[in-house]
Amino acid sequence: MQRCFCRITAGALALCLTLFSAQTARGYAFNQIVPDLRLSASVAGTSACPIPAHQLTAAGSLTVQWSTILGTNPVTILTLNQSTSGQLSEIEQVIQQSLNVWTGVSGSMLQPAVLAPLVRSASANICAADGRNSICFDQSDAAFTPGVLAFSRVLTADHIGAQVGSGAPATELGEILDADLYFNPGDSRITFATPQALASSPTAYDLESILTHELGHLFGFSHSAVWSAMMDPFAPVPGTYTGARPTVSQPDAPLGEDDRTGLRVLYPSAGDTTHIGTITGRVLPANPLSLPAAPAGVTGIFGAHVVAVDASSGAVIAGVLGGWSCSGAGPPQFDGSYRFERLAVGAAQSYQVYAEPLNGAVDPAAVDNALSTLCRNLLTDPGWPANFACVVPPVDTEFTTRARTSP
Ligand SMILES: [Zn+2]
Ligand 1: distance of its center to the CA of 405 in Å? Predict the structure, then answer.
């Protein structure tokens, strides 16, 4: 198993997809941003509550460009069609299909019309903080440490009017201003194959699975600790793919229910009358004095993976990271709260909820960009106002739980 080492640099989130060969319990988490409250209320609002990073959803608002410069030494992408134009068409089809996976989820505002036509760029090194969403197959980066197959770098607005490169100024807090997807181009042991070429390339990684995962980051996801989720941080082994292949009738086929639920939470559709259920609760220590060296103000278990299971089918519907709540002016309170939203409701629908420590294959480091972004303070941001400051507590990975029957 090789692990992902993601770094956070100056407002940029680097999210990696790494090699992993076993399946284990893996919930979604979002990248968050606390508005820059050093600025005026007119551009940053008046609350230190974290806002999930997200794309705008107006028709045609999401533009993605991809560089047709492919790695040749080693060859980065294997295709069935070997002609130059055929190869590019085959890759472009995979990109389009992977985008369609995320716009194919029912009950989400992220509908196909949000996507502008894919743009090809004949330039190398187009992945840059330029206000454009880009996919690169031939761009090296210091983030490619051994085992990192691909990663995404996402820049999010912490005030209205924030701007990156030639991109439009942000109109919403949490708006993603630039998301770039990098595929490792320089490791001879890492090649990617289109679905058409995968069967004959058993040592290659499935381009579609990895693109779909990285696009999840472009849409605002961090990682999930639910193993059936596309946003699990580990790639399928070479020659295999995650979930099912997308089809015309079910474009979102490879996603897990956890991914779908997360997308509905991030991009709720006002017209969705099915997924309107909410379950909230708190994960608390049996003995409050037992909280391990908890900083002042921490009154619940932080960082528990809380999972909602469909009681009749046993299927995992969503997993979330519990441990905090936020309202009004904020900042977040570390009170052990968790919250599921956008769950399907119905007469026959019921859920079981359990909590587990994040001590399996997905550890706190894999979701650090969802947790470390909950707070800002004098150490992270010089001049940060004290009344809006907090410090993210360490994730509690030590606790054990006991099942309790429902009331
Ligand atoms: Zn990832």
Answer: 35
- Tokens (6 digits) for 112: 């196909």
| 182, 185, 188, 193: CA torsion to nearest 10 | 70
Alpha carbon of 85 to ligand 1 centroid (Å): 30
Tokens of 273: 């009358």
What are the strands of the beta sheet with 351-356, ordered from one edge? 316-321, 305-310, 351-356
The model's confidence at residue 401, banded by pLDDT at 50, 70 and 90, is: confident
337 contacts 295 by C-beta, under 8 angstroms: no
Chain centroid, CA 119 distance in Å: 23
Tokens of 216: 């999840």
Closest CA to 374 of 360, 390, 397, 363: 390
More confident residue, 5 or 238: 238
Q: 177 C-alpha to center of ligand 1: Å?
A: 18
pLDDT of amino acid 8: 26
Q: How high is the mean pLDDT of the chain? A: 89
All residues at 6 or more sequence positions from 190 whose CB lies less than 8 Å from its CB, including other chains: 149, 184, 205
pLDDT at 7 over 70: no
Q: How far is the CA of 339 from the centre of ligand 1 (A)?
A: 23
Give the tokens for residue 330: 């904020």
CA of 255 to the centre of ligand 1 (A): 14
pLDDT, one tens digit per residue, over 345-366 is 998 899 999 999 999 888 898 8
pTM: 0.91
Distance 15 CA to ligand 1 centre (A): 5
Q: b/e for 131-161, b at 16 or more Cβ within 10 A?
A: ebbbbbbbbebebbeebbbbbbbbbbbbbbe
